[in-house]
C-alpha cells in the first residue's frame, strides 16, 4: 500500500463517526446521484441484477440502492474499515428500513482499494457501477476507468459524482494572496480536481460511450474559516498538495489566510465556501 493510500484510509477511518454530521454536500451529491439512476430505472429496459458501489462510506447510497433494486446483488467497497462498519450497521441492523429479508444474502461489503481490487475482478460481472464523491481520490483514473469498463456487461452503466475545479475556490484565492504578499509562489492546499471535459476525455479513452454530465455550484455557509476547515477535516478530506516553505511558518500562513478569507468571503453570519459538483454518466455498448 502506497503512503498516499495509507494516509487516505487513515483520514477516513479517523473521521468515520463524524462524517455524516459534516458531509451535507456529499448527501446532496448522493441525492443527485439517486435521482439520476431512479430516473434512468423508470425507462430502463435492462434488468440490472449486479451492482457495484465504489466508496460506500457510511452506507447512505447503499441504502437507496437496496430500496430501488431489492433483488439485485450489490457489492459495496470502501477503503476505510471504519466506514464499512458503519455502513453495515446502517443497512444490516434490525432497525434498518427499506431492506428486504434477503438483504444479507445479496449484499456484500468489501474493505478494499478499488484501484487494486478492480484488475482482479471478473470481466463483465456488473450491470451498474455507481460512486458518490469518491473518484477525486483515484491515483490512476485512466487505468481505473479502463478496468471499470471491463467489469461492465454490454448495456452497462457507470454513474458517479465527484468534485469539479471550482471547489473551495475561495480557500485557494485566500492562500494565493497570502503567498504573493510574502513574495512566494502560491501552493495548492487540497486536491486538484478535474474538469468535466477531462473526465469526458478519460471516459472516451477507456471505451465508454454516450457520456452525459451535469454541473452544480453549491454555496455552503460556515460560522468561520476555522469551522469550515474543521468541517472539511471531519469529512476526511484534509489532504494537501502543499509542502513546508522556508521563511513562512504554518501557523503564520494559516493566521494570514484566515484574515484574508474572512475579509474577502464573509457573508451574513459567517463565510462562504463553494462546492463544484459534477454528475457524470457513461454507458457500454
TrEMBL record:
CDD domains noted in UniProt: AdoMet_MTases (cd02440)
UniProt KW keywords: Biotin biosynthesis, Methyltransferase, S-adenosyl-L-methionine, Transferase
Top-rank lineage group of the source organism: Bacteria
Pathway: Cofactor biosynthesis; biotin biosynthesis
Keyword Membrane set for record: no
Catalytic activity annotation: malonyl-[ACP] + S-adenosyl-L-methionine = malonyl-[ACP] methyl ester + S-adenosyl-L-homocysteine
EC number(s) on file: 2.1.1.197
SUPFAM superfamilies: S-adenosyl-L-methionine-dependent methyltransferases (SSF53335)
GO MF entries: carboxyl-O-methyltransferase activity; malonyl-CoA methyltransferase activity
Listed GO biological process terms: biotin biosynthetic process; methylation
UniProt cross-references to Gene3D superfamilies, sorted A to Z: Vaccinia Virus protein VP39 (3.40.50.150)
Chloroplast found in the keyword field: no
Family stated for the protein in its record: Belongs to the methyltransferase superfamily.
Its job: Converts the free carboxyl group of a malonyl-thioester to its methyl ester by transfer of a methyl group from S-adenosyl-L-methionine (SAM). It allows to synthesize pimeloyl-ACP via the fatty acid synthetic pathway.
Protein's name in the database: Malonyl-[acyl-carrier protein] O-methyltransferase
Organism annotation: Paenibacillus ferrarius
Lineage: Bacteria, Bacillati, Bacillota, Bacilli, Bacillales
